[in-house]
Amino acid sequence: MVLQKRLDYGFNGYQVPAIPRATRSARKRVPLRKRVEGNQISAFDLLATVAGTLLLDKESSPASNNSWNAEDQSAVEKNNVKEERQDGDQSLKLETCNVSELVPQTNDPNYSSRESPGLQNGNQFGVTSAISTSECLERLDSQKLINGKIKNEMGGLACKVETGPFVSRTPGDCVEPVSENKVLTDEELDRTNKASTGEVADKCPLEDPLVLDGKPPAVVSSDSSIKAPSFGEHDPFISFPVQQYDVNVVSRDDDEKSSGCTHPSPIREPFRSTPRIGDRRIRKILASRYWKVALRSKNATYSNYDENLKSGYCNRSTYKRLRSGRNFPFKKRKFLHYTSESNSDGGTISEGISDLPEKNINGKASILYSKMHGVTGESSSLADQRKSFNSRDPHVKLRIKSFRVPELFIEIPESATIGSLKRTVKEAVTAILGGGLCVGVLLQGKKVRDDNKTLLQTGISHDNQMDALGFSLEPNPSHASPSLCPGGSPLTLPHDIPLPLASLGEEANFLSDNSILIHEAAWFKCMELVSPGKYPANPGLVNQVTFHPSTEPCMPNVGNFIESNNDCTASPTDMFDKSTTESKALVAVPAMSVEALAAVPVHKKSKQSEVAQRRIRRPFSIAEVEALVQAVEKLGTGRWRDVKLRAFDNAKHRTYVDLKDKWKTLLHTARISPQQRRGEPVPQELLDKVLNAHTYWSQQQAKQQQQQLPESCLPHYNSTMIGSGRCDDDENILG
DNA sequence: TTTAGGG
DNA sequence: CCCTAAA
User: Do A440 and A603 touch, CB atoms closer than 8 A?
Assistant: First the structure.
């Protein structure tokens, strides 16, 4: 009897291989998420509104000083600027992915049968919303640098984001997500909502770049390696990319004073998706939100840069104008720099200059702000490199126009109020954007995991034929949310709440990478402590959550990721690995109390990548072993999928591979002496059954094979009658 | 996707 | 548990 239905809101965009394939397939049959019905749009708008409050509230706060560069202002107003601008030191330009899709989840009768009547008749708030999507990720992948330019498929739709208003923080300002620092009352939220739905839509039209440009939607490049996402078919999420990023890789021109090549390269492939205003809004907001965090948290080294940004974008009046203006902040702007257009289609990478700071990929490359501040910022290592490559400039300049916000899931009771939904969404978004991010580097669609490689070794150099250099934002296992910041995040555990981890037992895994990986149940236990009643005990979809204690309270999160030597590719997902693209995401990176988490003695320094992606070890209980043995007795040893469905269909974390492996170990255990066995002792009775079943089914298999041989000579036999292994699930061979 | 088997 | 060849 279902006492309380829960709704899942999927912010699809960040993919975590948390749910094994088998589980996924099982989920297909019994979807847990509600279908997206006719009210999806309104629900979406709701989310958009919620997200909108994140930034708008913030933006309405007293902006800091600033003197928006007049040049920039005018640039913003010229939305369709085709000409490349020399705006290196003026602003950070972001380009968002403007494409989104609302993808109704599959219609599964089984699923609907699980829904309450109210839900079935479409009254439910059956919304599964997703911010950002694998699709967008895919598109990231599709970015190609071809002959000195990056073909940005998103270009057609991307809207440039002038992050000005969002980065208008004073240096002392701590990361404090919009209004997320306090839990809004329902009334407040409602009020905000009204304002958002109305004003946001008006002031933040997030115009479709297509319209702006009058260009048709772009389409993902024909690059076959880029698989179109198919989240809609198996994952009942509405997915919409929050943000796209553009990376511009150009080699540095000899003349650093030039802001780079001024030849615009409007070559952009149309995108296939149809943008929707609503999610554009969200996306943009989130994107901006992210960047606010990012810029805000730059470390001191780039304070100048920050200041510039601030001064460039902090002007509230400008922002107002932008918001109300037709073209709003998402001014179209060209950021690709090419030496020459003719060069862009063939030959080698043309020279050009990016006036934006470089991404420091392995911690050795320098971040060049030469164009912006006359700061060379060239590291000695690079200098050395240059010596050895004095024939050319060893610098790689990258321009990242925008990032997308990782995916997150939200689950909330049906009985929850809209206000609480808003808060929940906001908190989740805030947590994500609040610092739990890391950066992955992708080259030619594949993650570059070796942080020790140089750019040159990796193939990222200006005179190489570069193909799709990309960056991805992923929840960062090594960064906690800025929970110590003034006001703190709503997700921050109150300091007087005892660390719940101790009570989590095996549900919490302390990883060597200074992080704590806990299971869903544990997560909800934690969250229950934070917000009683708000986080139901049975999370359902959420598989596992990682908490990461941080020793850096109000950290310059992004500063870290920009400079970090850490393996930021350690994210639980490799979004460009097919197979993983389908995996289920989960990312709620609540900002737990830093003190609390810091109390956990964990070692820092370790390969986050492996740790982060590896599933938690979950030893089989005796009951599970019993179920497994029973199922195998009936089904045999070669039907692990059936075993899974029969005995472990509800155990989402047990895949048929797991079961097969467990059987393997059980068999091994049964064959060794009891003295050699380790771990929780398995009753000898069960082990005997294992041996018996194995023996039996081995014989069956042999028998079947022997029968099949003559069968080929006796075509009149019905092969399905031969062999008992695959006839009937209910037959109990071993009786 | 599932199975099978090595790591 | 992971990885992956093979089916």
Answer: no
Q: To which H or E segment does residue A145 belong?
A: strand A144-146
Query: Please, which residues bridge with residue A93 across strands?
Result: A162
Q: Is the CB of A22 under 7 A from strand B?
A: yes
Cα A120 from Cα A140, distance rounded (Å) = 37
- Dihedral sign, CA of A92, A210, A582, A576? negative
Please name which of A248, A222, A305 lies closest in space to residue A558, comparing C-alpha atoms.
A305
C-alpha to C-alpha distance for A490 and A50, rounded to whole angstroms? 15
Which A residues 187-206 have CB within 7 Å of strand C?
none
pTM score of the predicted model: 0.35
A613 closest CA partner among A564, A577, A649 = A577
**Protein A456 CA to nucleic acid C5 C1', in Å?**
33
The residue that minimises its CA distance to C1' of B6 is A661
A79 alpha-carbon distance from chain centroid: 30
Residue from A570, A576, A358 nearest A475 by CA:
A570
A667 touches strand C (CB under 7 A): no
Nucleic strand B contacts from chain A, 649-688, CB < 7 Å: 656-657, 660-661, 664
Q: How many residues does chain A have?
A: 735
Protein contacts on strand C: list nucleotides below 7 Å from a Cβ.
1-4
pLDDT, one tens digit per residue, over A320-358 is 222 222 222 222 222 222 222 222 222 222 222 232 233
Are A254 and A393 in contact, with CB atoms under 8 Å apart? yes
Per-residue pLDDT of A594-631, as tens digits, reads 323 333 333 333 434 444 468 888 899 999 999 999 99
**Sequence-separated (6 or more) residues with CB below 8 Å from residue A370:** A256, A257, A376, A377
Q: How far apart are CA A163 and CA A243, in angstroms?
A: 13
Residue nearest to nucleotide C3 (CA to C1'): A657
Helix (H) / strand (E) element for A408: namely strand A408-413
Separation in Å: C2 C1' and A616 CA: 12
Residue–nucleotide distance: A723 CA to B4 C1' (Å): 20
CA A616 – C1' C5 distance (Å)? 25
Q: In what order do the strands lie in the sheet with A437-443?
A: A446-447, A437-443, A469-475
